[in-house]
Amino acid sequence: LVIDASDWGKSLDILNATADTLIQADPDQNLVFSVHLYWPSSAGADANFIQSKLHAAVANGYPLIVGEFS
Q1: Can you give the pLDDT at residue 40?
Q2: Of all helices (H) and strands (E), which one includes residue 35?
Q3: How many CB atoms lie within 10 A of CB 12?
Q4: Which of 31, 27, 69 lies closest to 50 in space, CA to CA?
Q5: Are 34 and 5 in contact, with CB atoms under 8 Å apart?
Q6: From CA 24, how far away is CA 31, in angstroms rounded?
Q7: Is the CB of residue 15 less than 8 Å from the CB of residue 44?
């Protein structure tokens, strides 16, 4: 089962906070999470911003895919 991040798939902060709880609640351990990289450069989403968001998710250790990007 793929679970998208909230805010049209953009909110990695919420996935970081909830992924472990969701994984622990799934007896089949059959979850993967998805983020959509629609973070605008006009709002400061440069390469460092994107890398820091993705590194934070990796540090939490949950399965994550990039479902959409632009």
Answers
A1: 87
A2: strand 32-37
A3: 24
A4: 69
A5: yes
A6: 10
A7: no
Sheet containing 64-69, strands listed edge to edge, beginning at the edge strand earlier in sequence: 2-4, 32-37, 64-69
Our CA dihedral for 5, 8, 10, 11, rounded to 10 degrees, sits at -50
User: What pTM did the predictor assign?
Assistant: 0.87
Q: What is the pLDDT of residue 69?
A: 84
> Which residue stretches of the chain have pLDDT < 50?
none
Distance between CA atoms of residues 48 and 45, nearest Å: 8
* Torsion 9-12-18-19 (CA) sign: positive
Residue 9's SS3 state is: helix
Distance between CA atoms of residues 12 and 47, nearest Å: 16
Token digits of residue 46: 């440069």
What percentage of residues in the chain have a pLDDT greater than 90? 84
